[in-house]
Write a structure and sequence with these properties.
- By secondary structure, the protein is mainly alpha-helical.
- It has a domain at about 1-80.
- The chain has helices spanning about 1-30, 35-60, 65-80, 80-95, 95-125.
- The protein is globular, with a radius of gyration of 17 Å.
- The N and C termini lie far apart (about 40 Å).
Amino acid sequence: MLKTLLYIGTGSFIGGIARYLTARAVQNSIVSSFPYGTMVVNLLGCLLIGLIFGISERTNLISDEWRIFLTVGFCGGFTTFSTFANENMVLLRDGNFFYFTLYTGLSVFLGLAAVFAGNAITKVF
C-alpha cells in the first residue's frame, strides 16, 4: 500500500507542476480574461486519461503501477476534470444514463454552490 501511495504522490507532484506551467504558458500567450489555460489543461488531461485507459484496457503496455502513477497520480494532479470526464464516459458506455445525468448535474451545480458558499463564508470574517 505504501508503494502505491508513493506512485500516486509522485505522479500528483509532477502533474501539479505540469498543470501550473501549462496553464501559465497558455494564458500568457493569449491576451484575454477567458481562462484558456485552465481549459487547455482540462482538455489535455481528458485526452491523456482517455489514452492511458484505452491503452491499458487493450494492451499490456502499461503495468498496474504505471497506470496508477499516470491516471490517479499525474492526471489527478494535472486536473481532476479528467477523472470526472472518464467516469462519465464509463457511465455512458455502460448505459447508466440516469447516473450520468445525476453525477454531471450534481457535480456542476453543487460544485458551483460550494464555491459560492466558501466565498460567502470568507466575507463573514
